[in-house]
Amino acid sequence: MTTQIICLKTKLIFNSEEDKQNIIEILKAERTCFNYCSEQHYGSKKNSIVELHAKCYHNIREFYPEIKSQIVIKAENSCLSAYKSIKSNKQKIDKPIVKKKLSCDFDQRLFSYKNGFFKLTTLSKRISVSPSLYPKLSEYLEKYQFGDIKISAKNNDIYISIPFKIEVEEPKQGLALGVDLGVRRFAATSEGIIIQ
Predict the structure, then answer these.
(1) What is the pLDDT of residues 94-125, one digit of tens each?
(2) Which of 38, 44, 170, 182 could form a Cys-Cys staple with 96, CB 3.0–4.6 A?
């Protein structure tokens, strides 16, 4: 058995416009933290979370005391991942990376799930939201565990991406046929059959 990750995405349903705005505000806060971290990290020789944290954490908490510490740490890690990814793709970084989209990973400290509802941390309070269900998502929520979620905003809608951990059986190995196209013999199979 192997573990496979299947990510399903859907819109979130809010109880009020205020709750929706609270989510948008926390996504904006994470983006602000990311961009501040990116400015501080730009030009650094190595991707060190210790160095970035020392440069950014206390300043962000002082400038934006309403932003939760978990969001600052998420932004720091996300910033380093972005730089690492660009460097590993051999792309040149000639200015700080700027995050434009609104999205943030929520781990178990920032959300909980019970009875079909997600409780999400915002800058002011925890709010309760429900995912817009469709058959496959309903089945997966019932049957499988999931990890950290991602909340994103697009076209005035808020989406949740849920990565499900699914145990799948490894496919059984069948018989294989290898053919050696040679000079003296036309072909020889892996089972020893010679074709003249």
Answers:
(1) 999 999 999 999 999 999 999 999 999 999 99
(2) 38
C-alpha 2: how far from chain center: 21
Give the DSSP letter string of 154-170: ETTEEEEEEEEEEEEPP
pTM reported for the whole predicted model:
0.81
140 and 164 Cβ atoms separated by less than 8 Å: yes
Helix 49-63 × helix 17-41 angle, to 10°: 130
Residues in contact with 42: Cβ distance below 8 Å, sequence separation at least 6, in sequence order: 93, 95, 96, 97
Radius of gyration of the chain (CA): 24
Residue 153, beta-bridge partner list: 102, 158
Residue 112 DSSP class = E
pLDDT, the chain, mean: 90
* Residues 119-146 pLDDT 10s: 999 999 999 999 999 999 999 999 999 9
* Cα–Cα nearest to 23, from 100, 117, 125: 125
Residue 3 has pLDDT above 60, yes or no: yes
Q: Any idea which residue has 């781990």 for tokens?
A: 107
